[in-house]
Amino acid sequence: MLAATTLELVIVSPPPAGHRGLTSLHNRALCAIMETVMKRSTIENTPLTIFVTLLTVLALTPAAKAGIVDSPVPSLGGAKASVLYSVPFVMNAGSLGTYFSCTSTAPSAQQVAVEVFSDLGGAPTNDAVATQLTVGPGETRLFATTGAAGLSEDKSLSSPALFKGSARILSTSKSLICTAFVADTGGVPPRTAWQLTMVAKTKQKGE
């Protein structure tokens, strides 16, 4: 009965979004299996297929995507893209939004996109393929989590409310320089603004 009950709990309760690895429930279930295995008297009365099924469910339970590190990088414009920069502490709340400005230093056009993630990580809050931009040689484009009266964004990411999210900048070329900043959405020009730290790929200096 213990093994059968554990099987039902594991199936009904997968790991929550943003969680890497097994939850405490899964750990308890695994411990219950091991305890049952140690008791030969219990094994004799429990079909072997139950143990195999339980272990299979636990092993095949997928770990949720974990934000800028583990989420797969989509192709842009049919070409392979890579993560050039990561940006911590993205905000989109009240009268504040986050803005990403990128300038191409490539000799030909490239596809650029920004993916925004919530403070819990998980999957991106926007579709990079749908919000990508073609950036020609020497051109500058501005991505925005929300519109601002004092700024002229080229692409809105339509982000949900964020207080301490993150983002990553994708491109089909490495010849791209970018900056990111938080600014108020009502000022013309913005009355409040500050620059955010840009991290190359996912490695900060000192790591």
Written description of the protein model:
This protein is α+β, with helices and mostly antiparallel strands. Helix content is 23%, strand content 30%. The protein contains five helices and ten strands; from the N terminus they run αααααββββββββββ. The chain has helices spanning 2-12, 24-38, 40-44, 48-60, 67-70; strands spanning 82-92, 96-104, 110-117, 133-135, 140-144, 155-156, 162-171, 176-184, 193-195, 199-200. The chain has a five-stranded antiparallel beta sheet, with no helix packed on it. β8 (176-184) and β9 form a beta hairpin. The model is unreliable at 1-26 and 50-61 (pLDDT under 50).
Q: Biggest β-sheet: count, sense, barrel?
A: 5 strands, antiparallel
Q: Which regions contain 5 or more consecutive residues with pLDDT less than 50?
A: 1-26, 50-61
Q: State the distance separating the first and last CA atoms.
A: 49 Å
Mean pLDDT: 81
What would you call the structural class?
alpha+beta
Total strand segments = 10
Q: If helices are DSSP runs of H or I spanning 4 or more residues, what is the number of helices?
A: 5
Task: Work out the radius of gyration.
Answer: 23 Å
Strand order within the widest sheet? Answer: 4-3-7-1-10
What is the N-to-C order of secondary-structure elements (H for helix, E for strand)? HHHHHEEEEEEEEEE
In percent terms, what proportion of residues is strand? Answer: 25-35%
C-alpha geometry? globular
- Residue share in helices? 10-25%
